[in-house]
Design goal:
The complex is a heterodimer of chains A (166) and B (335). With 166 residues, chain A is α+β, with helices and mostly antiparallel strands. Chain A contains six helices and six strands, in the order ααβαββαββαβα. In chain B, β1 and β2 form a beta hairpin. Chain B is globular and about 60 Å long. Classes of the chains: A alpha+beta (166), B mainly alpha (335).
């Protein structure tokens, strides 16, 4: 059994007053310190190229998606969040998705789809906010997933940089 | 007719000011605590969150009123009023300033000038504790009952030291009239904080205990007693307790200003304009109000036996000693 030896308090310590004054002075100086609050909706956290947000589809400059609906991302997805129906086109790139849905409630933001994609068509964006009033509206279709290339450029460059190292 | 009108206007302004200050205190409490903890505090309602108390009030009105099973219905409803009412009544005798002349009418800046203002405040203010005890008892809840019991024990212990501290001030001034006490401290060097420093210290400490504030808030004591006496209270009944508590704090701060900081006297400016005097009074009161908040967010709560020990073994002997020294000096100098 351990015996705790308590220190004999000096008069100043017994009076408590000096320590109370010290505590008060600490809180007073802290009062004029800088606030560390981040006012979230107005001041979001900064994102980087490494930020793995929700997956988005890349739109080429001609306005068509880069996706050829090969289904590799669908197969790679561990959460079965992706559903793709393909269709043929008259353009030199012969295939495009007719339906491309990601169930954002199932998506676990793992980035496997991004890795699986052979066509640089799907990338993890820096978009992180996800909220709605019902589940159905959180199954994102083509319209919600489509992004111009510049919006994803930072991530695209980052992934290309990684791939070059292999 | 004219005197009644003037009197009515004074009542309206002073009570409006008291309630407004009490409401702003709830905001100030949250703001200062936020600053001390490096946060921002409420800043959404109105500019810098200035309308937050209003939003809180509206919220309280819309809350459900809960009457606990087995509660004493009459006392349960009556108790919050019994806490709020005395706190608001005591402000009547606080002299906020000297005489002022406005629109050809000369009047004094207080609702009533009682010859025994100090006694009135102590007597009426002491009634506030009944609201807490009755509220705790009527709730039919062990936490409330314990909170009420603690509050009563604490109030009795500290009221004694507080009165003895005030008696020393009264002995120095020779009057129970708050206006005369303030007038006796017209010069900066005559302030009772210099003439009665120990009494001032004792009064400030007991002031915290009397208003159930940290580090003496044993009536509430949320870690041990959930919410103490107001555990079972909800809606505006809780709001009334809250209002009463903050009003009592404001009145106590006013009383401390009058007793020890010279009331409306402006340092180094004799014969100051009444507006300047009023501003000085408010600034001094604000200092005490800030002290309340500052101490709350600095010190931890005492243990209950430590509180009683401090009250009976330290505060009371010190108050008696102070009174003895004051009396001895007064009789020796023959003043």
């Amino acid at each position: 059994m351990a015996l705790v030896k308590r220190k004999e308090l000096s008069l100043a310590e017994k009076l408590y007053l000096p320590e109370i004054a010290r505590g008060l002075s600490i809180t007073l100086t802290k009062m004029f310190g800088k606030s560390i609050t981040r006012q979230y909706p107005e001041e979001p956290l900064p994102t980087t190229a490494v930020t793995r947000g929700q997956p988005r589809l890349v739109e080429r400059q001609d306005g068509h998606l880069a996706c050829v609906s090969c289904g590799l991302c669908e197969a790679a997805c561990p959460a079965y969040a992706i559903t793709i129906d393909g269709q043929e086109t008259d353009r030199p790139i012969e295939r495009e998705p007719e339906r491309f849905e990601i169930d954002m409630l199932r998506c676990i933001l793992c980035g496997f789809c991004e890795e699986a994609c052979p066509k640089d068509a799907i990338f993890m964006s820096s978009e992180l906010e996800l909220a709605d009033y019902d589940r159905a509206s959180l199954v994102y279709g083509l319209d919600q997933l489509r992004r111009q290339r510049p919006a994803l450029q930072r991530r695209i460059d980052y992934i290309h940089g990684i791939n070059e190292r292999w | 007719m004219n005197t009644i009108l003037v009197w009515l206007i004074k009542v309206l302004i002073i009570y409006g000011g008291l309630l407004g200050t009490a409401a702003l205190m709830t905001l100030a409490e949250r703001k200062v605590s936020a600053w001390i903890q490096h946060r921002k505090g409420p800043n959404r309602v109105g500019p810098c969150g200035i309308l937050q108390p209003l939003a809180d009030g509206v919220k309280l009105f819309f809350k459900e009123e809960v009457l606990p099973a087995g509660a004493n219905r009459l006392l349960f409803r009556f108790a919050p009023a019994l806490t709020a009412l005395p706190a608001m009544m005591t402000v009547a005798v606080i002299p906020f300033g000297g005489e002022l002349e406005l629109f050809g009418i000369t009047t004094k800046l207080s609702i009533a000038d009682l010859d025994i203002g100090v006694l009135y405040i102590l007597a009426v203010g002491g009634l506030g504790i009944y609201g807490i005890i009755l509220g705790g008892w009527a709730s039919n809840s062990k936490y409330s009952l314990l909170g009420g019991l603690r509050a009563s024990a604490q109030m009795v212990s500290y009221e004694l030291s507080m009165i003895l501290a005030i008696v020393a001030v009264i002995a120095v001034t020779g009057s129970l009239d708050l206006r005369e006490i303030a007038q006796a401290q017209a010069a900066f060097t005559d302030w009772n904080i210099w003439r009665q420093p120990l009494a001032c210290g004792l009064f400030v400490v007991t002031m915290f205990a009397e208003t159930n504030r940290h580090p003496f808030d044993f009536a509430e004591c949320e870690p041990e007693l959930v919410g103490g006496f107001h555990t079972e209270y909800s809606s505006m009944k809780f709001g009334l307790y809250f209002l009463g508590e903050y009003s009592a704090m404001v009145v106590m701060a006013c009383l401390a200003t009058t007793l020890f900081l010279g009331g409306w006297s402006v340092p180094f400016v004799p014969e100051a304009h009444w507006l300047l005097g009023l501003a000085a009074f408010m600034a001094k009161t604000a200092c005490f109000l800030f002290l309340y908040i500052w101490v709350r967010w600095t010190l931890p709560r005492l243990r209950f036996d430590q509180l009683m020990g401090l009250g009976w073994k330290v505060m009371l002997p010190l108050a008696l000693l102070n009174l003895f020294i004051t009396g001895a000096l007064l009789s020796l100098t023959g003043a």
